């Protein structure tokens, strides 16, 4: 297993980490198998979506903000960041990607994004390799 540290700059931010993961994959010398990417945090997540047009990441954050308001009278979590926890659960904490010929079988427009929902912070991303 390998770990990447990602320094986020905003309170909410989608950060494309595809290149960093591909670098780890290349160093691993695994040519065929499955790559597991896992975020060990309760207010950050991971997702795969369009990396070509940065406005998609912006729109995803905007939609999540509308779906999950920062303040609601019924929230009970005393830390005050319930919305960050809910968003992290909505996007999930792991993704799996098929690896073939030493490369990830991502679609043309796909990238892997760390989803920061309560930054700025330093986040860990664990990457585990399962070769066939
Ligand atoms: Zn909390």
What compounds are bound to the protein? zinc ion
What's the gyration radius in Å? 16 Å
CATH architecture level-2 label: Sandwich
Count up the helices.
Answer: 3
Structural class: alpha+beta
Overall helicity: 25-40%
The overall pLDDT average reads: 97
Provide the CATH superfamily.
YjbQ-like
Overall number of structural domains: 1
Which class in CATH terms?
Mainly Beta
Strand order of the largest sheet: 1-8-3-5-6
Q: SSE string, helix = H, strand = E? A: EEHEEHHEEEE
Beta-strand portion reads: 35-45%
Shape assignment:
elongated
What is the fold named in CATH at topology level?
A: Jelly Rolls
> Could you describe the largest sheet, including whether it forms a barrel?
5 strands, antiparallel
Can you tell me the residue ranges where pLDDT is under 50 for at least 5 consecutive residues?
none
DSSP E strands, number: 8
Calculate the terminal CA-CA distance, rounded to whole Å.
Answer: 16 Å
Can you give a write-up of this model?
- The chain is elongated, with a radius of gyration of 16 Å.
- The protein has helices at 18-28, 54-67, 82-91; strands at 2-7, 13-16, 33-38, 44-50, 94-100, 103-104, 110-116, 122-131.
- The model has no long low-confidence stretch (mean pLDDT 97).
- Strand 5 and strand 6 form a beta hairpin.
- The chain has a single domain (2-131), classed as Jelly Rolls, CATH 2.60.120.460.
- The protein has a five-stranded antiparallel β-sheet, covered by helices on one side. Strands 2-7-4 form a three-stranded antiparallel β-sheet.
- It is α+β, with helices and mostly antiparallel strands.
- It has three helices and eight strands, in the order E-E-H-E-E-H-H-E-E-E-E.
- Zinc ion (ZN) is lined by residues 77, 79, 81, 85.
- The site of zinc ion has 4 residues, from loops.
């Amino acid at each position: 297993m390998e770990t990447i540290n990602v320094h986020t700059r905003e309170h909410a931010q989608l950060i494309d980490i595809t290149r960093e993961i591909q670098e780890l994959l290349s160093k691993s010398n695994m040519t065929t198998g499955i790559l597991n990417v896992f975020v060990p945090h309760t207010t950050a997540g991971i997702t795969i979506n369009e990396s070509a047009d940065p406005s998609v990441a912006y729109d995803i954050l905007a939609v999540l903000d509308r779906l999950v308001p920062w303040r609601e009278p019924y929230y009970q979590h005393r830390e005050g960041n319930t919305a960050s926890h809910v968003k992290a659960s909505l996007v999930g904490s792991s993704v799996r990607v098929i690896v073939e010929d030493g490369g990830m079988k991502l679609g043309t427009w796909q990238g892997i994004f760390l989803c920061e929902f309560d930054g700025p912070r330093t986040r860990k991303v664990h990457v585990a390799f399962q070769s066939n």
